[in-house]
Please model this.
Amino acid sequence: MSDVRSALAGASFEGIARVAEAGLRGMISFRGDLSASKVKSALKAVSGVEMPGQRGCVVNGARGLAWMSPDEALVMVPHAEAEDAVSQLNKALKGQHFMAENVSDARAVFTVSGRHAREVIAKLAPVDMAGFGPGEIRRTRIAQVAAAFWMDEADALTVVCFRSGAEYMFGTLKMAAQPGSEVGVY
Amino acid sequence: MLILECPYCGVKGEETEFHAGGEAHLKRFGPGSSDADFETYLFMRENPKGVHLERWRHANGCGKWFHAARCTMTLEVFGTYSAQTYEPPQEIKDILTAKRPGWSWRNFK
Amino acid sequence: MSTRLTQGGRRIDRNKPVTFSFNGTRLKGFEGDTLASALLANDQMMMGRSFKYHRPRGVVASGAEEPNALMNMGEGGKFEPNQRATTTEIFDGLAAKSQNHWPNLEFDIGVVNNAFARFLPAGFYYKTFLFPRFAWKHIYEPFIRQSAGLGQAPKARDADTYEHFYFFADVAVIGGGLAGLQAAKTAALSGAKVLLMEQDPHWGGRSMVDGGELDGKPVAEYIAALVAELEGMENVTLRSRMMGAGVYDHGYLLGYERLRDHAPALVGPRHRLWKIRAKQIITATGAIERPLSFAGNDIPGVMLAGALRDYIADYGVSAGDRVVVVTNNDDAYKTALAVKAAGLDVPVILDARADGGGAAAEAARAAGIRVENGKAIAKVTGGKRVKSVKICAQAGEGGVLEEIACDAVAMSGGWSPVVHLWSHCGGKLLWDEEHAMFRPDETRPPLGADGAGFVIPAGAANGVMDMGVGLTDADHAGRRAVEALGLVAKTVRLPDFEQAAEAPLQPVWMMPQGAGPKLRMKAWLDYQNDVKVSDVQLAAREGYESVEHTKRYTTLGMATDQGKLSNINGLAVLSETLGQAIPETGTTTFRPPYTPISIGSIAGEARGEVFQPVRRTPMYDWHAANGAHWEPVGQWRRAYAYLRGDESVHEAVNREILATRESLGLLDASTLGKLIVKGPDAGKFLDMLYTNMMSTLKPGKCRYGLMCSENGFLSDDGVVVRLDEETFLCHTTTGGAERIHGHMEEWLQTEWWDWKVYVTNATEQWAQIGVVGPNSRKVLEKLGGVDVSKEALGFMEYTAGKLGGFDARIFRISFAGELSYEIAVPASQGRALWDALFEAGAEFNATAYGTEAMHVMRAEKGFIMIGDETDGTIIPQDLGLSWAISKKKEDFLGKRAQAREFMANPERWQLVGLETVDGSVIPDGAYAVAEGHNANGQRNVEGRVTSTYYSPTLGKGIAMGLIHKGPERMGETVDFPGTDGKTYTAKIVSAVFYDPEGEKQNV
Model:
């Protein structure tokens, strides 16, 4: 399967921060008992990381795990491996009550990076960006769409939204990163 | 604009992260119920000037439903609690009693 | 005349001249000037014409409270009306025009209104509604509409950009005068995260002009040091040119930051609206001076005493060569001394108080200024400029004792604390009788999320007018704020100060006390809306006695200045007229924003391309490139039809339908909701949500299902597919995906929380394509990889596999009534599959069809659409869908509701097909009329159209509708009156117009 596209392949913008579409990422929406040891080991096996605590997010390259709710986790793997990862989970947890759905293509992913990356997000999401640091995932809205974001490192954020909102998200992030719009707070 | 703390994911979010979901602790009446009971279930709602128990969903967040105890006059939020319960937990009731002595809401007090 | 002094003006830089234009004339000012100070420097005192009477008006104030000097500013995409000259910093090339006059400011035809003022008092136009009736529509309304409004509405799109910023603070201090700065310092030193905002470009507020000493040094020095100290603290954010616009629930505060109004050449957004959450808010918002109500108090040259001395100290501008000062308090004497010190003349100070002033009066006399106690202004003479004042006794009726020539009048009725931000979220006021002011009642503050107060007033805003005492009050406010946060308040050393001994103010609500009607008709309260003392008294006489009624009847306080200069004076006049005390009258409600903010700042980034999310499918670009005529479906864009060449929409729709039924049509169905429901209780759960029995659906099979609300009404429909033993895929309508997902979560979380079911919204994971028409199977076989023969994949069955190399789910379902498949592939492959289908389908004349063709084709088959056949009052039984309601299930959502009497009533209108006798298309929304009229004299109706189209397949109009006893009246005709004067007669027929045996979809 050769012609596989993300929503806004390769789009990027330089303003007070750099906004770029991050291409296809493998994402699995997992529902189940996150405290069960079988679940924890199955998730670790596909993601390579330990299940974090409330609102935690551990990302290691293209793999990772994020806590989405008491019974929901986001599993990250390379895009091409997502279907296999679902099969792996289905096998490992057979007979239990859980759900693993490949939602890789339902999402659009962006990175916002640079000295004012925090401010760009703070213009659009009702979140206290002063105290926000790596290791946490925040689900909220960015302007008028539901979104989630985490910090990969200081001044580099990854933003996830529904694929259909990609143009809107990119356009909005660009507005917030327009030259001359540094707030000067963070 | 309110701030609500989601009891499931711990986020203290502003109102735009949530969707209001009407009155809490409604008792469902289904087939076989009397007209009066069914009407109560569908249409009769509390409209107090004071303590109110209501539902919210963390729509732009973890997606969970939860309950809130709130004053409809001052907008004070007494607390938020799990949606998987038929009545407010004792801690919430205690807060209500401390802040609004003599409170009652439907058959809770 | 008003002029630039040779010295002074701490805000201006005389080395940096600025050129600007006013009404087309080029003028000069200095960097640091406001438009108002620069105009005064050029002896341009008259700055506009009043709203109703078109009276000449000059600037009255020096700050945001200015009511008169409103300007149309800029051009084209930068044009903005109603800008206050007092808060507009000038820059090279600024172009301002005064408002509300024709043909020009000096000579305005509108002034004829002034001659008819007697017939145009407050509320005159309510009287125009009375009679004669024709006159309102043809005479009054057009005339009033023409004259309404002050500035002009912009005609071009706003060329600037705007943004928001979410910020969180422990303590937000509104106001960067002495009190605000001091309170911020106390809070910051105690460890709080502090945000301090000031609407002016400069810190220090009134104290910079009114001077005095702190620790034996000029106040300005103390303030500079204080600002520097705050700037050096990491936990303090200082912003000037940022106004506290409003205080809202739970500590929400809007800050309006003007980034580029003073320097348009800078790159970046023009305004930034800060959306702040503060745990505690300190309102150090100062006080505003009150005018005095005497006849002619609106003539250009009459100004607030504080403002007059502001222009001298801040801008080196003198408002007049000969300034008469009139006052009821000591503060205004500062203006007389400032005028004198600038080398100008003060012919007299009129002190309305019988006993006059205190130390201030002595200082004035010592400076050689004549001071008269117990005296007042009976009248100011002059039209476009003050010429003289006629002096009388304050205690009398206005008998003139003396006339003094002058060209400016500095008036002071006292100072009112700015209580707006305290009041916005419910803070209450008390009337301080001694000082004749409303100030915050600290026992009744606005209450926050925890039920405790979250706003604290400080300084003049708290009624503490003395500078030194205000510092103590501010420190106190800072301490209270941090203590409310659980911090320990640090002790901050306050400077030494000398409190000036002032004689008390005497409230003077009418000047002179016994002024008669003629004088009261010319004593202005609200400059911007042209409301006079006589108007308020008229309102009371006509019975509009509540202050809220008086406000609306007279429009007092309803202009863009929100009554900053008029509220207190107005309600005092009302109180006197009604013979009640001022606190009994009360105030009207203060509402945000404090001063007007730009609409652009409220919109922020939401404009143009990103005004709203426009949701796109993976095939969007193809549609755009192939003539898509877009239809919004919720936030999605779907192609309504694809226009080729110079086709009309109608022609395109017809072409698409014929091509699909003849051979092969392709539809982008990606927007349909796809909810995956999994778990041991999934079947049980779906049995409750749908009217049908879903738990019996076998893996690999599809079933069309209906969902009703608990109130029994049809809410959504869609095909449910059983993917495996524990997993179902529920399709929803495009508009229903998020809604039904939320609906499912609601029941699982709040009612049946012990059931083992998970739901995932996979709508966007899959691109979905309808492959429809007699050649649909052939094109799929060309792609290959999956057996789609009739035997392998029967009607309403599902399979999955690698179709032409794509990871596909294939559903054999039909909405158009032809042989039809829906193919779902991961969204990242959607466009590629779409292209592949067109390539493989070229030999079959593969034709893209849009939503309208889809709607027509389903109507030809009598299939319902949610939103057309349903409107929230329709139940499945109305639509002939009783077959979809399981008789075996004991319970499902809506079952109890459908047992109610009126739901089973045979009188309910039922769905049938409608065929016009002449082949025409019945208009949308048409009603079928029956015999006779109802009690309201309206024709009786017995049905309505729910869907109506031209069917190219059948060559005539077809429709579906709900008709009284429809199914029993096959062959009868009913009449539908159109809005075009025609009546459409239609025969009642079966709704399945095309292929009633279903042969075409069963191959």
In short: Chain B touches chain A at residues 8-11, 13-14, 16-17, 59-64 (CB under 8 Å). The beta strands of chain B are 3-5, 12-14, 19-23, 51-57, 65-71, 77-82.
